[in-house]
Task: structure prediction
Amino acid sequence: MDDIAPSDLKAILHSKRANLYYLEHCRVLVNGGRVEYVTEEGRKQLYWNIPIANTTVLLLGTGTSITQAAMRELAKAGVMVGFCGGGGTPLFAGTEAEIAVEWLVPQSEYRPTEYLQRWVRFWFDEKKRLKAAKFIQLARIERICATWRHEHLIEAGFDVLSEDLNPLLHNARERIEAAEEVTALLTEEARMTKRLFKLAASAVGYGEFTRAKRGSGTDPANRFLDHGNYLAYGLGAVATWVLGLPHGLAVLHGKTRRGGLVFDAADLIKDAVILPQAFLSAVAGHEAQEFRQHCIEALTESEALDFMIDTLKAIADDLGKGP
Result:
């Protein structure tokens, strides 16, 4: 079989790719020139193809292994790979033992640096970093406005009243725009998210809900939120990689975590897409796989990765203009 050129594998733009995989209890390898994962059913081994040219993220959970040859092909296709615990959380560093958001990033020394140069041009200016952080949070609010009252969510049973949602988001906009430092912005982010949780729980009749620390929640909604957020982190890692932006150049979450830009990017879609589905699936009694499938479909249909890439590009273009 002739080798496939990396340029051919990258023919599908990342923002247009359809697949995001979470795998567990399997081996990922190259078989007959294709990347496949192998599961066992009794004495049989079943081989399943991974269409890498149409895949953005591969999360490897409990009981997985991957060969060097498979990693080589995934890197050629520009697929982001991350190792994680059972159910998709927590995500473990690819090269460290600590729990963190860290990815095995496809390497190429010849990728364009256009957006990196614009990003670093403003990044060392604290006021401009704050402006970039506000840009992300305001875009996050606009995404919630466009999503939470969408007919497909209402038909599914997620019916948040406009008279409850609109004032909340209006007040959040005003406080974000008035924030004079990152700490104030983080405080407002936490306040808004807490109120969104309350609205979501009420909308589906979930009852009392308290957001638990990552990985410590035992109720379905907390587990689904943890799991779904890591799908968003995967897309955040892809968006920053596509633009050539190092994960350490965060504008909001970068004080204590070197992968903070992934968190920043994921903020754009977490509340809009993952949060409603977490509560819908919790009430419906979905298993993790069914919840995950609903999330992936929603992320694809809403063109979430497109939105993340376009937002980061807009920030770089706006704040990174030359003198």
Notes: The two ends are 52 Å apart (CA to CA). The first helix runs from residue 6 to 9. The first strand starts at residue 19 and ends at 23. The CA atoms of residues 172 and 192 lie 7 Å apart.
